[in-house]
Amino acid sequence: MSLDQSLYLVAYDISDPKRLNEVHRYLKKLGLPLQYSVFLLRLTPKQKQQVVWRLNRLIHPRYDDVRIYPLPQNPDWQWWGKPVLMDGVRLPGIPLPEGMEDVKFKTTAESENRHERQLSGVKKFPQGSL
Predict the structure, then answer these.
(1) In this structure, how many other beta carbons lie within 10 angstroms of the beta carbon of residue 37?
(2) Per residue, what are the HEC states of 43-87?
């Protein structure tokens, strides 16, 4: 990452399906989708200013919500469940956080099996008891 670039987490909640698709398509060109409405972007200050300008034109300020959170230089990345990228998949031009380049993601089936094992020790309440 160059010295003038920073990592940002961009999250949004858009009420209109057309605007939602426009925002999603725009951010997908710029960064890594971590979840449907959450993106990781690596931007210079000028690029961030351009992103803010463009998002302001895509959303309706009364009904939609977009947030840009700066991330620390060396974030402590943790994730569970469905992987961002499957093993061996790389997206050219989209830098991953340091250390994620070599991460071996589990397949969905492996992740589901691990989740089932974790839940096996959890006390289950009878239906309607809560």
Answers:
(1) 17
(2) ECHHHHHHHHHHHHHHCCCCCCEEEEEECCCCCCCCCCCCCCCCC
Instruction: Give me the CATH topology for the region 1-75.
Output: Alpha-Beta Plaits (3.30.70)
Task: Give the helix/strand (H/E) hosting 26.
Answer: helix 17-30
Structure-block tokens of residue 116: 């089932």
Q: Reduced to 3 DSSP states, what percent helix, strand and coil does the chain have, rounded to the nearest 5?
A: 30, 20, 50
The answer to whether 40 and 34 are in contact (CB under 8 A) is yes
Q: What mean pLDDT comes out for the span 53-64? A: 97
* pLDDT score for 73: 78
